[in-house]
Amino acid sequence: MSVEPTTAAAMPTPDRPPAVEFRSVTKVYGAGTNRAATAIESVTFSIPDLPDHGEFSAFLGPSGCGKSTVLRLVAGLEPQHPPTSGEVLVLGKPVVGPGADRGMVFQDYTSFDNRTVLDNVVFGLECRGVPRKAREAEGRDWIERVGLDPVRDARKYPHELSGGMRQRVAIARTLVLRPRIILMDEPFGALDPATRLDMQDLLVKLWREVQATVLFVTHSVEEAVYLGDRVFVMATTPGRIAEDIPVPAPTRPARETQQEQWFHDTVNTIHERIERIEAEAQRRNGK
Ligand SMILES: Nc1ncnc2c1ncn2[C@@H]1O[C@H](COP(=O)(O)OP(=O)(O)OP(=O)(O)O)[C@@H](O)[C@H]1O
Ligand SMILES: [Mg+2]
């Protein structure tokens, strides 16, 4: 199997612009002040909008390399948005702020504590003015699809749920709105290893159903290799994309894939690349 780095960004077709495109994007926090700090510099990449298959891109990299900055720029969230220079495009249009075409799942559980699971899941539909009966039917359907009980669990409040259950709610709340682009910032970082593998399998299943483009940030090389169609390895100081590595899409459950030789080889290759990138960055920065 090939894990050769590719440097050429996928070419957008005239009739189908890329799902997400960064054109030489730089973000300096506190620009123009004495606290100015460059988070990412000249980041360029293009994620194609493939027919009948949302591309799954995993972002790996050391703490502080700008992974969350990239995701939040796609989401159009301040203070990351707008970039200091360069262009962020979603489905061919410059990002001007948050929009219904993008949904975000954060690492920390972001449910409303005073709303039940069902009311959390249907919150976005409520904001869109979908009538109660229709939104609750849709909400229960998604609660079931993420592996929770549409009656018993639907009535619970967030404090009555485990971390894994809360992340299922967060995923349901995002997917019920059917975004074209799903942004996930270390969504499984706080989960125990077994729950994490279950969530990876769930995500693959749902991703196939909704065919959305996914940008997924993780610190786990294994998670990136299992879930991704491609892995962006980022480097720090300044934050940038160091490598863009195609990997096979998941075909079998996470636990089985992790036993396969090609999987071990790919994970090792990426670990070695990350070590090399970090050693080069340290040399350049005179450490
Ligand atoms: N709101 C902000 N104001 C000032 N600096 C910021 C802000 N957000 C991030 N930074 C800085 O930008 C750089 C990139 O941060 P970012 O959160 O994107 O990194 P990350 O790769 O997501 O890290 P982690 O893996 O720890 O989540 C860091 O040096 C950070 O200190
Ligand atoms: Mg982050």
Protein topology:
Layout lengths: L19 E10 L7 E11 L8 E5 L6 H9 L9 E6 L2 E2 L7 E4 L11 H5 L1 H5 L4 H14 L17 H13 L5 E5 L7 H18 L2 E5 L3 H7 L2 E6 L4 E7 L7 H4 L3 H24 L3
Parallel strand pairs: 3-8, 3-9, 6-7, 7-8
Antiparallel strand pairs: 1-2, 1-4, 4-5, 9-10
Helix pairs in contact: 4-5, 7-9
The structure holds adenosine-5'-triphosphate and magnesium ion.
Adenosine-5'-triphosphate binds next to β2 and α1.
Can you tell me about this structure?
With 287 residues, this protein is an alpha/beta fold. The protein has a domain at 1-95 and 212-287: Rossmann fold. Helices cover 34% and strands 21% of the residues. It is built from 9 helices and 10 strands. The chain has helices at residues 67-75, 117-121, 123-127, 132-145, 163-175, 193-210, 221-227, 254-257, 261-284; strands at 20-29, 37-47, 56-60, 85-90, 93-94, 102-105, 181-185, 213-217, 230-235, 240-246. A 6-stranded mixed sheet has the order 6-7-8-3-9-10, sandwiched between helices. It has a 4-stranded antiparallel sheet with strand order 2-1-4-5, covered by helices on one side. α4 (132-145) crosses α5 (163-175) and α7 (221-227) packs across α9 (261-284). Residues 4-10 have low confidence and may be disordered. Adenosine-5'-triphosphate binds next to β2 and α1.
